[in-house]
Hints:
Elements: H1 3-24, H2 29-34, H3 36-45, H4 47-63, H5 66-72, H6 85-111, H7 114-133, H8 135-138, H9 140-168, H10 171-199, H11 213-220, H12 223-233, H13 240-245, H14 249-260, H15 267-290, H16 299-312, H17 317-334, H18 338-351, H19 357-385, H20 388-412, H21 420-439, H22 441-451, H23 458-486, H24 489-508, H25 521-524, H26 532-545, H27 547-555, H28 575-579
Amino acid sequence: MGGGGDSGTAAFYNAALTRREALMGKSGPAALVKNFRVFCIALFACIGGVLYGYNQGMFSGVLAMPAFQEHMGDYDPLDPQADQSKKGWLTAILELGAWVGTLLSGFLAEVLSRKYGVLVACVVFMLGVVIQAVSVTAGANAILAGRFITGMGVGSLAMIIPIYNSEVAPPEVRGALVALQQLAICFGIMISFWIDYGTNYIGGTTLATQSNAAWLVPICLQLAPAMILFVGMIFMPFSPRWLVHHDREEEARKVLSTLRGLSANHELVELEFLEIKAQSLFEKRTIAEMFPHLREPTAWNTFKLQWVAIAKLFQTRAMFKRVIVATVVMFFQQWTGINAVLYYAPTIFKQLGLDDNVTSLLATGVVGVVMFLATIPAVLYVDRVGRKPVLIIGAIGMATCHIIIAIIVAKNITQWSTQPAAGWAAVCMVWLFVVHFGYSWGPCAWIIVAEIWPLSTRPYGVALGASSNWMNNFIVGQVTPDMLKSITYGTYLLFGILTYLGAAFIYFVVPETKRLTLEEMDVIFGSEGTAQADFERMEEINSEIGLTQILRDNTGASGSDVGAGPLPEKRQVSEKGENGEDA
Length: 583
């Protein structure tokens, strides 16, 4: 493309975005009220996040229960000085299952739909919980198998639900609705900690008196929200973007109209529908040209296409930048140490001087409360403040907390009994660390991963980012017990240094993406360099579906100089509508 085309489309994109923002109104709490229907749908879908958070938080308390430790033997030894490797494996096997589930979920989300993919994930999740429940007679291996299968369900839900929420949401609240996933996770973590605190008293709190029901009850309670999500999701709408991509255009129009609370012929509904259709046609024709043997939309072709689509992510600079952003952001999210805290909070608090199991569980419950409360502002204001400043400030805050904890532990590790104030100071730093994570890297990392991908590669792109999350989650869960035992305060130094590096990565590499439509995201990642063939393909599609004619009718401009002047009052398209998608 020549320089004139680039400047024209860039000017048009800026004018389109300004006009769209004027029509949409402001972001923030008022926008959630305006889009209350979408908000309620996304809120219900986020029960999947509650399941993930509950499973994550619940197991940290279960690991500290004497009855469970006796049941699991070497996998959760009663002696804190014993080998902790199997304990790491017991915890981390859920993340390994989630990694597998994430890789399979791209295929499910594309073939079955986002909606039905959630239903399948619920069934897998419930199967894993049932297997864990029978471990009281089947033995420790049933817990391992059940956690792996439950992890597959959790990984699928964690990948599909952010896609679903981002695709039903209008741009002005998209970030807030995707952030609901993290709020739901935090809510699940919070209630799980307090349920553990309560069930820990079943039969008594000592090894001699505690009943197996103390750990069985919190495990089995997961079935209730999973069943509610399964039944309720049957009545939820399909993603309009998925409908368009699968040639169900009239249904997509109706869903968009209902979701937006506008008439089917309203300019925003029409604009959004045509942009989605243009993007879908472009992706289909690009795939058909590059991989003609996979052009038929059969399930087997789609299964093979997911690996082709993943390979495609590495083939152009613009797409590879998305890969770097998604995978490295998730790497740094996990190496903040958040799941080390969530999985082993009672163990950590005991190491910080809270020797009594009941007291450590109580301190763990506070972790859940402060994380949940800290996440609420992100849901309300992330679309107004933006992603980058929140991520940078959160990373600096978390890293500083780690360094302070490391200093306190280094000075007092052998004298907690005579320095209780130092122990509580370290505990408060853990709580403050969780606050910084709650409003920043918790929701915003998932927002970025969900919103940066083009339509046909979105399930696979999110799967790639989520797989980075789960694999690093698995590694952190596996190594943390041994790190806490062998290098003690060095654990916090490591997490602190890596989190400072995460702040630098966000500042220098990650672009700001707030208030852009999912289709307009292409411009941020370098679509100005799209190959001429792709430009011509998109121009042909725009003419075919009427976008070019609408623009000409309203501006009186020719196709070549469209975008050089101001936007028409009635219609506007994104830059991508004239410029095209990545090669």
